[in-house]
Amino acid sequence: MNVVSSSSRLSLDRGGKHDPLASSSSSTPFVNLYRDPPNVELSLDDFEVYALKRLKILRKLEQLESNRVPPNQASPKIEQLIKQQDLNDPNIDSYSHFILRLSYCQTEELRRWFLRFECKLFQHRLLQLSQTQLAASVRSYASLAPIAKEQKEQLMPVLLQLYNPTEVATMSLYAVPFTQALELVAKRQVILQSGKVYVPDSKVYPILVAKFRMELSKSLALLSHNNMASEETRIRPLLQNLHQCLAEPEPTGMDGSTHGVTLTAATVPSLQSHMPLCMRQVQTGLERDRHLRHWGRLQYGLFLKGAGLSMEDAMLFFQRHFTKVTGEQFQKQYAYNIRHMYGKEGKRATYTPYSCSKIIIGNAAPAHGEHHGCPYKHYDVDHLGRTLQQLKVGTPQDRSAILKLKQEGQFQLACLKQFQVQHPKAVERNNMSLDNVGNHPNAWFRASLEYARDGAAPSNLEAGAAENSLLPVESDGEGPAMAAN
After folding, report:
1. What is the reported pLDDT for 372?
2. CB atoms within 10 A of CB 156
3. CB atoms within 10 A of CB 75
4. How many C-beta neighbours within 10 Å does residue 384 have?
5. CB of 386 closer than 8 Å to CB of 470
6. Please, which residues bridge with residue 13 across strands?
7. Which residues contact 412 (CB under 8 A, 6 or more apart)?
8. Which residues contact 221 (CB under 8 A, 6 or more apart)?
9. Kind plus residue range of the DSSP H or E element containing 79
10. Lower CB density within 10 Å: C or N end of the chain?
11. Are 441 and 353 spatial neighbours (Cβ–Cβ below 8 Å)?
12. Mean pLDDT of 191-211
């Protein structure tokens, strides 16, 4: 997709003859395959508005997934938001998708996130189609047509073993190469005969979603190598920062979200059993090395600030742990950065705690002697497995499930799974808020404290276990000094 200047407007060039304004009624369910970018001029304001409309929906899908909301409850919420954001309009839907493509093609992590939730949105829309609309979509998109009535009659004895007579009478069957329906074959939910899988219309969705995922993944990969929009100086900052928009801010402990727990320089170590793995490992590295490098100080310092640690206590906390330097050296080398982090120096900005996406995507991976970052992304499987085992996280089966999510690149879901393992009764409690857990470290901390306040300590996780964490032994070598941003 080319983005070019046109007076005070931008053009999204599809290179075709289709008129993007000639569309079907926005009230009719439809599925856009996004095979051709639209040819339309947009103002800079519209460019941003359309992007944010779609991003709100993708963020909502992410939130619902993180909170494990059942599909029957999530679907009406998504449909309502689609209507609110005007994405039932085929034009807005198309514009917003291709704008986000430009933004989310930049890195592998962004492409993976965009691909995941675009596929979820695509599947949601498929589920809204009538049987007639679905048949038309299958025919046009996957080049599949329902089998003839006579062929269906031949399969009737087997069909009646899988489905009740009412379902068999009304269903349409599609003959699909078995390689396109491996998931259904593995679950024994379809008929396999002579290399063909006979899929009922109620189960054809995974095939269409898989095809959509393959096409979108290829398009994003190609776009990442030929992103001409990066040369458009007016939209470059917007495209580079879109992925940070609409990430839900986590209430800070100063707003009362730590449920009566007062965080001080003395109490931080005793509360590390309530911290997510990313912060717990920073605390472990700090206790062992008696020092943190720049990104570790920033990641952990902002987390503690968001959890309610005052600037004075933060100063005392880090000075107590940085025992390799004298008090005078600490004041010269580190005190200014802490005051800056709390908005008391420099441009006096308000810095907020890092979200999970910021930790995963935002900074460079930790080098030797550094402890920042996301363990689910930056640790290898063996290191992560040993760490979870030594921290006594769940059973071997629980740890295997967590590691499987890590290997699939689902870092936030792996973190959420760890929370669920350590807080097994959290989902059952109607009065307990799990919003943002798996999306923000401070949300994890808040929810764990709430769980403990209600009388249940996190399971299989002792407060002192972090002292035995399997961080590699570091040398005394010091990296270059870095000023706080």
Report:
1. 93
2. 11
3. 15
4. 22
5. yes
6. 2
7. 66, 356, 357, 360, 376, 438, 439
8. 111
9. helix 71-84
10. C
11. yes
12. 82
* Band (29; pLDDT cuts 50, 70, 90): very low
Taking the C-alpha atoms of residue 366 and residue 370, their distance in angstroms, rounded to an integer, is 5
Q: What pLDDT score was predicted for residue 44? A: 83
From 199, 211, 200, 169, select the one nearest 33 (Cα to Cα). Answer: 211
Read off the pLDDT of each residue in 19-41 and give the average, rounded to a whole number: 62
The gap between the terminal CA atoms of the chain, to the nearest Å, is 35
SS3 253: helix
CB 441 within 8 Å of CB 279: yes
pLDDT tens-digit readout, 407-463: 988 898 899 999 989 998 877 765 666 767 888 999 899 889 888 877 655 555 443
Mean pLDDT of all residues in the chain?
Answer: 79
Name the DSSP letter for residue 4: E
Q: Lowest-confidence range among 38-47, 159-168, 399-408? A: 159-168
Strand partners, 11: 4, 41
For the chain, give the percent of residues with pLDDT over 70. Answer: 80
* Strand 196-200 relative to strand 173-177, pairing: antiparallel
Q: How far apart are CA 287 and CA 394, in angstroms?
A: 25
- Measured distance CA(244)–CA(240) in Å, rounded: 9
Distance CA 59, CA 66 (A): 10
- Rg (alpha carbons) of the chain, rounded to whole number: 26
Chain CA centroid to CA 394, Å: 23
Angle between the 90-104 and 205-225 helix axes, to the nearest 10 degrees?
50
Alpha carbons 280 and 258: distance in angstroms, whole number? 17
What does the alpha-carbon distance between residue 90 and residue 219 come to, in Å, rounded to a whole number?
20
For residue 436 the two structure tokens come to 């943002």
pLDDT tens digits along 53-98? 999 999 889 878 866 778 888 899 999 999 999 998 989 999 999 9
Q: Is the pLDDT of residue 468 over 60?
A: no
> Which tokens is 256 given?
């009362």
Q: What pLDDT does 364 receive?
A: 77
